[in-house]
Structures are given as C-alpha cells and as structure tokens.
Design goal:
The protein is α/β, with parallel strands linked by helices. The chain folds into three domains: 2-89, Arginyl tRNA synthetase N-terminal domain (Gyrase A, domain 2); 120-273 and 312-370, Rossmann fold; 400-557, Isoleucyl-tRNA Synthetase, Domain 1, CATH 1.10.730.10. Helix content is 54%, strand content 11%. Helix 7 packs across helix 9.
Length: 566
C-alpha cells in the first residue's frame, strides 16, 4: 500500500506543479474511507486549499480529471466526491499483493531497522525468595513482546533479568533461617518455604523489634564475605531461580543474563568516586545526592547518611557495565509507571557524568493490574499468585476444549497454550500505560476480543489448508469486498510492526490481530472456499495461507503459542 500511495502522491505533485506540494508531503494526506464503496484510499483536498488557493471542490475536480487521463499503475479509477479524491485499487494489483505476501512467507512483515544494532532490555526482575504474583505480569509480558518485536526488526537483543538479590531483606531471611529454618525443608518445598520464613520474620519483628538489628548485622556479614551467609544466600537464589525458570518456560521466555543487584555491588564504589571527581555529589544532612533542580526534578539520592547505596547507585553502575559489555544502541527498562521519576533522574545523572549515550536509555512504563476491578494490594491480602492464575487458566481452557473438541490430541499442551494465551492477550490488548482489569469470562471467551478467539481463528486457517490442495494464483479473478478488506489488513502488517517498534507498544500488534481475525471470519462466512473453484478458489486458499503466516507471526510477537488444532 505504501508503494501505491507514493505513486499516487508523485502523480498529484506532478499535476499540481507547486514546490510546496512534494510527493513526500502528500504522503501524510491520505486516509482510508469509512466505507469501502467510497474507495480504498482517499485524499481530502481541503488540505491543499491554502497552498493552491482554490476551493477543495475545484481542486478535487481538476486533479480527478487530470489523473483519470493517466492513472497510476494499480489504480482502477479515481472519483471526485465533494472535495475528496477517492481511489479504487485494481483487482490485478491486489492479486500481485497476495503473491508478494506469499512469496515472502514467514519473513513478511520483517524489516532491517535494527540491522547491525544491539538492544538490551531489562524486564521481569523479581525479588528472590518471593513467589511471582500478578503484579509481575506487566513487566514480564510487555518486556518479552518488546524484545520479540525488536528481534523481528533485525536487532540483536540481550534479555536481562535484573534479579532483586541484594539488600537487608536477605539479612532478614538469614536470621529467619537460623532461628526457625530447616535446610532439608527448603530443598523440598523450595520458594514456598523461603516465603514462609520471610513472612515469619515480619511477624516476629512486630513483637521483637531488636531482631531487625540482627538482620542488618547478618546482611553486613554477607556484604563482607561471610562464608556461611554467602552459602545460604546462594542456596536461596538457586531455589528461587528454579521456580522462576518453570514460570518462564511456561511463558516461552528465555533470558541471556540473570545478573542481579548483587553482581554490581563491587562496581558501585567506582561510580561514587567518579561522581565525586566530577563534582556532581553534594552533601545534604549527611546524605550524598546529585542536584537536578535545573531540570525540574528532585535531587537524585546516591548514598544514605550511613553511607549505604540506593537504587540509583546500582542502576547507574549496571548501565555503565552493560554499555561496556554489550555496546548497546538501546537499553530499555520495562517497569511500572510509578518508577518514571526514578529513571528520569538517574538517566540525567548519566548524562551529567559526560556520557553521550544518555538518550539510548529508555524507560517503558505501564499501568496497574487488577482482578475483576480490585487492585492488587499485599496489605489487604488481595494478591493473586501467578502460578495459581496460570493453573486456573489452563484448567478453564481445558474444560472448554474438552467440551468443544473431546477427541483432540495433546489436549494438555493446547490447554496450556490457550490458557496462558488468554492471560497474555487480555493484558496486552489495551495501551500499556492504561490500567488492566483481568476478567475470566471475557478473557476465555472464544468469540470475544480474546486470545482464544485469535488462536481459534489461526487454527481455522490451518484446518482449511489441511483439507485443500493449494494451486498457483491466477490473474483472472474478480474479488469480493470481504476478500479486498482481508487482503488490505494483511498488507498492513509491516506498517504495524514498525509502529509497535517505534512506540514500544505491543497493543498495536494485539489490536491488529483482532482486525485480521474479524476480517478473516467475515471472509470465511461470506466467501465459500469449498464451493469455489479455479482461479477463485486458488485466490481464497492463498488468502488462508497468508492469514496463517501473518497471524502466526503476529501472535508470536506478543508471546502467544499457535496450536494448529483446538
């Protein structure tokens, strides 16, 4: 479609013969008519009135007459309608479009924007010794989708899970273990036992506040290399990672690095010294900070009064190490919108330190997550564990599949794909900055705007192709409106990928998936494949093949599996 728009724009620029109306300028003036009967592309001539000093009606009339004498290739006709130029695409052009899509196969929609470039993305990043809850879902699936979109666009991507594995909380866990823990029980029950011990520490600390001093002392020993505390810390981390990897496997997510906060603990002193040498640190009531008032931001705290580091210190140290290690062109951080100020502050500090890659640091924020309208709040007990959510989704999906297709092979695997897909799709449907409300009846509906509906549509296309023999597409075919609309949707996939990439917005792909599904199902219900024959049937099967390829890629880009039978 972009090629066709450019051809039309060049023709109009030639006819108008006005230096202020270049083909490049005109490209932004095109729109899609609200009704297919009004054409496939429209140009509102009121946008040309100021330059050409004529009424839109007069401009449309003159341009229509001139263009009709020499139509751009691929345009069947052009009509003048009350100041609008409406262009109708020739069926032969659409046939060629479909051929091009099919020729590209699984590569259709890919681009080389990131060729030769490296993108580092920091996402998910749970605190060890704690189970995943639904609040971790946003960073995990949004980050994964952004990574997949960048890979599809030619970037070399490094996925980093910046584990929360350092700090006084691990002193608390060591104290809890030494008072009430059992190593064999931890090895048997894993992260659940670690979580129990951590909660128990909190309960005991309310009765005996002095135990907090024990925790600080144990963490101090850990920082100074105490062998027993280091052994316990490594055990807690290993146990946690084993559980997390099960969850990531279910989601199809793989990381290149699990370097957490602890990895950068010995790299922070150099950062602090560099800030001092560059006269960026100021003392305020014993704390060390970087003044950002000139940038309308609060100061960025680097050291507490007791000399201990803070999150910005670690994040700056991590960014400097990653730049040296990976030579990234982009370093993306996917966290909740509530951390936006934190990232803006330390990004600015990196710039003030004299590093010219401050603009390569990108924070991608997202909104809150709720269940049936209730926000997650650990203090009120409204926390849904991610494993429990997945188990319930898989169980519900399995029941639906058993009812709809009891003879299906490998029902458990399909139930996993559909159940997990329902959660992911529901979470990525709205713009990422908007709050997400998860509702079971909506998410697991095979006929609504859901993941199961999209996966079922993909499976339908696969089923059609299994039952029919494809043949070469011929030119002599007259297309129905539903065929044209579906092909138009399929052709726009490359544009959607670029937009999702530029905006760091998976929902662009999710909404596109629904557009393709809706257009495909309208096409399927109106344009019979079984009753068609010859050129007509070849074209329709070609559309089904294109739907399978493109819908499969689009589902992959948001992290959904693509079962061919449901």
């Amino acid at each position: 479609m972009n090629v066709l728009k450019r051809q039309i724009a060049e023709k109009i620029a030639s006819v108008a013969a006005n230096p202020a109306l270049s083909a490049e300028t005109l490209l932004d003036f095109f729109d899609t008519p609200p009704n297919p009967e009004m054409g496939d592309l429209a140009l509102a001539c009121f946008r040309l009135s100021k330059v050409l000093r004529k009424s839109p009606v007069a401009i449309a009339s003159e341009l229509c007459e001139a263009l009709s004498q020499d139509l751009p290739a691929g345009i069947a006709r052009v009509e003048n309608a009350s100041g609008y130029l409406n262009f109708f695409i020739a069926d032969s052009y659409r046939v060629d479009q479909l051929r091009s899509i099919l020729k590209a196969g699984a590569d259709f929609g890919k681009n080389e924007i990131g060729k030769g470039k490296t993108m580092v993305i920091d996402y998910s990043s749970p605190n060890i010794a704690k189970r995943f809850h639904i609040g971790h879902l946003g960073t995990t699936i949004i980050g994964h989708s952004i990574k997949l979109i960048h890979e599809f666009s030619g970037f070399h991507c490094i996925g980093i899970n910046y584990l929360g594995d350092w700090g006084t909380q691990y002193g608390k866990l060591v104290v809890a273990f030494k008072h009430w823990g059992d190593e064999e029980k931890i090895r048997q029950e894993g992260i659940d036992e670690l979580n129990r011990l951590y909660v128990l520490f909190g309960t005991e600390a309310e009765k005996n506040p002095a135990i907090q001093d024990e925790a600080r002392e144990e963490f101090h020993k850990l920082e100074n290399g105490d062998e027993e505390n280091l052994r316990l810390w490594r055990l807690f981390k290993q146990i946690s990672l084993e559980r997390y990897l099960q969850t990531y496997e279910l989601l199809g997510i793989h990381f290149d690095s699990f370097n957490g906060e602890s990895f950068y603990s010995d790299k922070m002193p150099a950062v602090i010294e560099e800030l001092r040498e560059k006269n960026l640190l100021k003392l305020d009531d014993g704390a060390s900070l970087v003044d950002l008032s000139a940038y309308n931001m609060p100061p960025c705290l680097i050291l507490k009064r007791d000399g201990s580091s803070l999150y910005p210190t670690r994040d700056i140290a991590a960014a400097l190490w990653r730049k040296k290690e990976y030579q990234f062109d982009k370093c993306i951080y996917v966290t909740s919108a509530g951390q936006s100020l934190h990232f803006a502050q330390w990004f600015k500090v990196v710039g003030l330190m004299g590093y010219d890659w401050e603009d390569q640091l990108i924070h991608v924020p997202y909104g809150t997550f709720s269940i049936n309208g209730e926000k997650i709040a650990s203090r009120t007990g409204n926390v849904v564990l991610l494993d429990d959510l997945f188990d319930e989704a898989i169980e519900k999906a399995g029941a639906i599949i058993e009812e709809k297709n009891p003879d299906l092979e490998d029902k458990q695997s399909v139930a996993e794909a559909v159940g997990i897909g329902a959660i992911i799709f529901n979470s990525l449907l709205a713009n990422r900055i908007k709050d997400v409300n998860f509702n079971w009846s909506e998410a697991l509906n095979f006929e609504g705007n859901t993941g199961p509906y999209a996966q079922y549509t993909y499976a339908r296309a696969c089923s059609i192709l299994r039952k029919n023999e494809e043949s070469e597409i011929e030119n002599a075919v007259s297309l129905q409106p539903e065929e044209k609309e579906l092909l138009a949707s399929l052709s726009s996939f490359p544009e959607k990928v670029v937009r999702a990439l530029n905006e760091y917005e998976p929902s662009v792909i999710t909404r596109y998936i629904l557009e393709v599904c809706q257009n495909f199902n309208r096409f399927y219900n109106v344009c019979s494949i079984q009753k068609s024959e010859g050129a007509e049937k070849a074209f329709r099967l070609g559309l089904c093949r294109a739907v399978k390829n493109i819908l499969g890629n689009a589902l992959h880009l948001i992290g959904l599996r693509t079962p061919e039978k449901i």
